Amino acid sequence: MNRRVQILVALLLTALWGAGIYAAHTNGHLRFLDRLEATLTDWRTQVRGVQSPPDLVTIVAIDDTVVKRGGSYPLPRADLARVVDTIVQFKPKVVAIDLLLVDRNAAIGDATLANTLATGPMVLAAAAIFPSASETVAPSSEGPLADLPQAERFLLPLPAFADHAEIGVVNVATGQSGSPLSVPMLFRTRDRVELSFPLRVAARALDKPLTIAPDQLLLGDRAVPTDTDFALPITYYGPRRTIRTVSAQSIFDGTLNRAAIENRIVVIGAAVAGGGDFYPTPFDSLMPGVEVVSTAITHLVAGDSIVRDRKVHIADALAAIMLPVLLVGLLAWRRSAPGLVAAAVLMIAWAGLNLFAFTHGVWLNAATTLAAAVPPVAVFAGVQLWAGGRRTQYLAAKSQSLAQFQAPAVQEWLARDPNFLSKPVRQNGAVVFIDLSGFTALSEKIDPDELQDLLKAFHALIDKAAVGCGGMITGFLGDGAMILFGLPSAMPDDAARALKCAIDLHRGVERWIGTLPPAIGGRLGFKIGAHFGPIVASRLGESHQHITATGDTVNVASRLMEVAARNDARLALTDTLLEAADFQGTPDGILSGPLLTQVRGRSGVVTVWFWRDQDRPSQAATRAEMID
């Protein structure tokens, strides 16, 4: 199977994985993703920060101050009637009582409260009782209301109270973290459907008719942006008391400010430590349930709730499929650093888009997309690393002699074709550079004749290695040389012969330095660079011409000597040269790398390998060399 087919198969499997993850989670499986999404939602809410809520709702809290005054909780019905009566006198839009008035108390207190409820627009709380701890959906249900939470029954206020008020179910839906992430707008039993408490309050406050459409709720002509199960996603404005809150004790003390009540939605609820319902939220470990409900009411009236509707779910499905496919595609397209960088940039861009959407009122699922993207990308990257490791082992373990080919002498070629390279020729070729380290400093300390003999011996060693491998020395550069493979004509094994020449030079120069007196050999080192690629072969000069090569390949080969020195190596090879030479390793050599690096004079990166004898320590272990 070729690489293109492998990539196509990997992309197809990745897409199927993403689609499967999304479908499984949508159908109620993979519940652990709900906990992850809850955590990520809390984090995104905290990043968004505290916001000022629309000033529409006032919470009248039956808090610890009230309990200390009255000495009991729940609040006696007569006292509650007094609270409601005082609020009604200040002419609110609606009074919502987030207390379950389901049992009888003292007859006088109940009668007083019933009469008080008849004096203003009222909404009372009811509760849904479910067969288990979670709100379930009957699988046999059909129609637009099939996904509603199905309760066994409703706990309704006493008829004496319900006759004077509208009723709404006050239950909220908590996520895996315990934090309410949405509030169901509709509830049902086998024979009836009830509106939620926040929806009843909002409809009464706006004085708009409520329409239950197949796929949405309408308050007048305004759509309520619910989820697909008619639940209202909520995000919190801030910690407790971010929504305007006054203590019911101010009513008993006669200090209640009329401006906090008049023409506003007033929600009466419990905030008694140990007595009321509390929930953890991103900003507060204990937020009273009445403030959670008031948050939902504010969303409905102001129209500022976060959007998580059918279109958002479609976007989630596309992200769960396309993001992992794009990531795997980038890793397959660029197997080295550029591919990793591109994949990382894409992942960061997705995370930024997700956070931006959340802070601007659109709730894109993060957990499902991560579950769809991370496993296939990790598996694909692991396979890539494994394949690269196998190739490295293959190169280092195989023992096969490099092919040798002796090209005709350039002089003979010129004799047959005097116009050879009279015009520059562009072709592929291999270039090997070698240079002595420490030679300049040594030349200041030894006799010129001795220095000359040293240089002749070095040049003779280079000449022997170059000729033996069929290379052409284009020039001795003082204490170095450039050897070209590809002239007088390009051959299929130019790269292989250049590689063999570089290795022979490494061994020959190392042995030669070892034979020198310690005072000289201890000061010398060497570095070799070899590369394969396009060159421009030409003649330079007028009366005295010489054949040479120029171009990026020559520059890279020259700069590789610097790379070798920086990495405590003596022989630096590019991956281009190794691939062109079909290098299978040497019996007694060690190939290490790869290293992605930049070289002077070139904008991109070069993949470099370093070679040394198996029985020789690295250059750093022998000595620190001086660089010319």
Low-pLDDT stretches are: 133-141, 398-409, 620-628
The rough form would be described as elongated
Relative strand content = 15-25%
Largest sheet: 8 strands, mixed
Helix content bin: 40-55%
Strand segment count = 25
Determine the number of helices (DSSP H or I, runs of at least 4 residues): 20
- Rg, please? 41 Å
Name the structural class. alpha+beta
Mean pLDDT, as a whole number? 84
The first-to-last residue Cα distance is: 50 Å
Explain what this protein looks like in three dimensions.
- The strands form 6 sheets. Strands 18, 19, 20, 21, 22, 23, 24 and 25 form an 8-stranded mixed β-sheet that branches. Strands 1, 2, 3, 4, 5, 14 and 15 form a 7-stranded mixed β-sheet that branches. Strands 6-7-13 form a 3-stranded antiparallel β-sheet, covered by helices on one side.
- 43% of the residues lie in helices and 21% in strands.
- The protein is elongated.
- It is built from 20 helices and 25 strands.
- The two termini are 50 Å apart.
- Helix 4 packs parallel to helix 5, helix 10 runs antiparallel to helix 11 and helix 15 runs antiparallel to helix 16.
- It is α+β, with helices and mostly antiparallel strands.
List the helices and strands and how they pair.
Blueprint: H1 3-26, H2 32-48, E1 57-62, H3 64-70, H4 77-89, E2 94-98, H5 107-117, E3 122-129, E4 153-155, H6 159-162, E5 166-169, E6 173-174, E7 180-184, E8 186-188, E9 193-195, H7 197-206, E10 210-212, E11 217-219, E12 222-224, E13 231-233, E14 245-247, H8 249-253, E15 265-270, E16 278-279, E17 287-288, H9 289-302, H10 310-333, H11 337-359, H12 367-397, H13 410-416, E18 425-437, H14 439-443, H15 448-468, E19 472-476, E20 480-485, H16 494-515, H17 518-521, E21 525-540, E22 546-550, H18 552-566, E23 571-574, H19 575-580, E24 589-598, E25 605-613, H20 619-622
Parallel strand pairs: 1-14, 1-15, 2-3, 2-15, 3-5, 21-23
Antiparallel strand pairs: 3-4, 6-7, 7-13, 8-9, 10-11, 11-12, 16-17, 18-20, 18-21, 19-20, 21-22, 23-25, 24-25
Helix pairs in contact: 1-10, 1-12, 4-5, 7-9, 10-11, 10-12, 15-16
